[in-house]
Design a protein that fits this description.
- The complex is a heterodimer.
- Chain A is mainly α.
- In chain A, α1 packs across α11, α3 crosses α10 and α7 runs antiparallel to α8.
- Chain A is globular and about 75 Å long.
- Chain B has a single domain, classed as MetI-like fold, CATH 1.10.3720.
- Chain B is built from 14 helices and 2 strands; from the N terminus they run αββααααααααααααα.
- A two-stranded antiparallel ribbon of chain B has the order 1-2.
- In chain B, α5 crosses α7.
- The longest helix of chain B is centred in the first third of the chain and has 31 residues.
- The model of chain B has no long low-confidence stretch (mean pLDDT about 90).
- The chains are: A mainly alpha, B mainly alpha.
């Protein structure tokens, strides 16, 4: 009898254990992929905070021993680091301002109006995606020298806007489509002009999405390496600065530079995490 | 509402059109002219100079190899991530946030991250050493170990670039109606059949844009390579950079730029044709 109950419980528990082992497999897969993303960032942070001695410890344990903020502060005090950090902020600020100012009206037009040339405009915007845009910095060197924009933050901001503007136009189109047209029309009925209706009714509702778009424009500019390196000599952005001093910097400086590049973008991506999928759902259409 | 003031939409798109014309179309034409002219006359001299350069063949081969290896792996990992996270209820947001972190990381930073792991006294060697696989520090990133260097660059690119593919694919998966899956289940389709016959065809638009975006970016690979291998692993954009900044020869750099554009455009067209998306599904 006891064997009978044994086998009975066994058959009853088999589907459950099958399900739980699948569950276990799923979660270990998820955990492995999370570790795959996070562990390298943790390790470069160790490298950045470990200083010169930290680089030569052998074999390394991967534990946070012998770290302090001092090596990182020392890196910040290196000539050119703070300036290039500020330059990066400046270029990213210009990119954000321009791509929203130019892109959002276009997105609004695409969302609210039917007009001749709409498809051609969309094609122009989509075409920019098939091009390696940063490469366009090469011929711009010559024109920028002539215009006095070479080696300026404005010049870098302009080329970064070429990268961010098509994205901003497409994403804001989706955001404005999400604001019900009826609300806007109701505002007209109640005597608002179009401009008033836009700023009093549409803009507040679209604002969070537009802020998320702005954050993306910031990240695009902040991370861009090639165009920034080609178009600057003395007024380098952080990426361009790091790229040019790379071969002659000690290892721990390189890691500190890497960490400094990563931190702001990670914070920003965290801030807009809710909009990530909505935005890419829109812009990948 | 469009009849009475038909100029409004044009006024709204005009600034962006003007901007893109000035800083996208004009430089595009300039690049092509710079590449295909010599002293103001049409000429293939620059192209010849590029093709006969010692690094040219290597950079073409390296760039293509990297793209061919990196893009499929990224798509596969992103699909795995998308299917896994679809089965998760609580904690879904956190998991997705962690997986999207590399989206904010530049290729230069990604190269530096993997440099900290793969340099001679780095964590990878330490791990191998403590496992007894190697007796002394091995070097992976020198010109004497081209295969290891290639793998290192590919790993760094996969680490960084998978996030964007994942975001696009998860956004696509979110739009697949639940009813399709349920119906397939009722008719007895297993998980694999469901994936290949239902999910994959339905997310084809997302897959297409992920492929286009990633492939164009893969042909632009540069800073990751430079951070890990310096000049030991020539790639197309790296060569363009060297011709421009080191050799101060803007024309040969422009030929490289044109070549990269042609390759990117060709890849885009191939994807558009191979993964034809029904127009009604696009809306």
């Amino acid at each position: 009898m006891s064997t009978e109950t044994m086998s009975a419980t066994e058959t009853a528990s088999r589907p459950a254990s099958f399900a739980s082992s699948r569950r276990w497999l799923l979660w270990s897969g998820i955990a492995a992929l999370c570790a795959w993303v996070l562990v390298p960032i943790y390790l470069v942070a160790l490298g950045a905070l470990g200083g010169r001695q930290g680089v030569y410890i052998w074999p390394k344990t991967g534990l946070p021993t012998g770290i302090s903020l001092e090596p990182f502060i020392l890196f910040l005090k290196t000539e050119g680091v703070v300036q290039s950090f500020l330059n990066s902020l400046g270029a990213a600020g210009i990119t954000v301002a321009l791509s929203i100012l130019l892109g959002a009206p276009a997105g609004y037009a695409l969302a609210r109006y039917d007009f001749r040339g709409k498809d051609s405009y969309r094609l122009l915007v989509l075409l920019t995606r098939a091009f390696p845009l940063a490469i366009l910095a090469l011929p711009l060197t010559v024109s920028f020298i002539r215009l006095g924009l070479y080696d300026t933050i404005i010049g870098v901001g302009l080329i970064h806007t070429v990268l961010a503007l098509p994205f901003a136009a497409l994403v804001t189109q989706g955001i404005f489509l999400g604001v019900p047209k009826e609300l806007e029309e109701a505002a007209w009925v109640f005597g608002c002009t179009r401009v008033q209706a836009f700023f009093k009714v549409v803009a507040p509702l679209a604002l969070p999405g537009i802020v998320a778009t702005a954050v993306f424009a910031f990240v695009i500019s902040w991370n861009e390496v090639f165009a920034a390196s080609v178009l600057t000599v003395r007024n380098r952005t952080l990426t361009a600065y790091l790229l040019t001093v790379l071969s002659e910097s000690p290892m721990h400086y390189r890691f500190a530079g890497g960490l400094m590049l990563i931190l702001p973008s990670v914070v920003f991506i965290f801030a807009v995490r809710r909009y990530l999928f909505a935005i890419w759902g829109i812009s990948s259409k | 509402m469009t009849q009475n003031r038909p100029w409004i939409p044009y006024l709204l798109i005009l600034p962006s059109v003007a901007f893109l014309a000035l800083l996208f179309v004009v430089p595009l034409v300039q690049t092509i002219w710079l590449a295909l002219s010599d002293n103001g006359a049409p000429s293939l001299a620059n192209a010849e100079r590029m093709v006969t350069d010692i690094n040219f063949t290597r950079s073409v081969r390296n760039t293509f190899l990297l793209t061919i290896v990196v893009v499929p792996v990224q798509i596969a990992i992103a699909l795995a991530m998308g299917t896994m996270v679809a089965k998760v209820g609580r904690g879904r947001e956190t998991i997705l946030w962690i997986w999207t972190i590399p989206l904010g990381i530049s290729d230069l930073a990604a190269g530096l991250v993997w440099l900290s792991i793969l340099q001679n006294t780095g964590y990878f060697n330490s791990l191998l050493f403590s496992l007894g696989v190697i007796g002394r520090q091995a070097s992976w990133l020198s010109y004497q170990t081209p295969v290891a260097l290639f793998i290192a660059i590919a790993v760094a690119e996969i680490w960084r670039g998978t996030a964007i593919v994942m975001v696009i694919i998860v956004a696509g998966l979110n739009q697949v109606p639940k009813e399709f899956k349920e119906a397939a289940e009722i008719f007895g389709a297993g998980p694999w059949t469901r994936f290949w016959r239902i999910t994959l065809p339905l997310i084809r638009p997302a897959l297409q844009s992920a492929l286009i975006l990633r492939t164009v970016l893969a042909f632009e690979v540069f800073a990751v390579v430079y951070a890990l291998g310096g000049r030991n692993f020539p790639v197309l954009v790296g060569e363009a950079y060297n011709w421009q900044n080191q050799n101060q020869n803007y024309s040969v750099a422009a030929v490289y730029a044109v070549l990269i554009m042609i390759i990117s455009l060709a890849a885009t067209l191939i994807y558009l044709k191979a993964l034809k998306v029904d127009p009604e599904r696009l809306s």
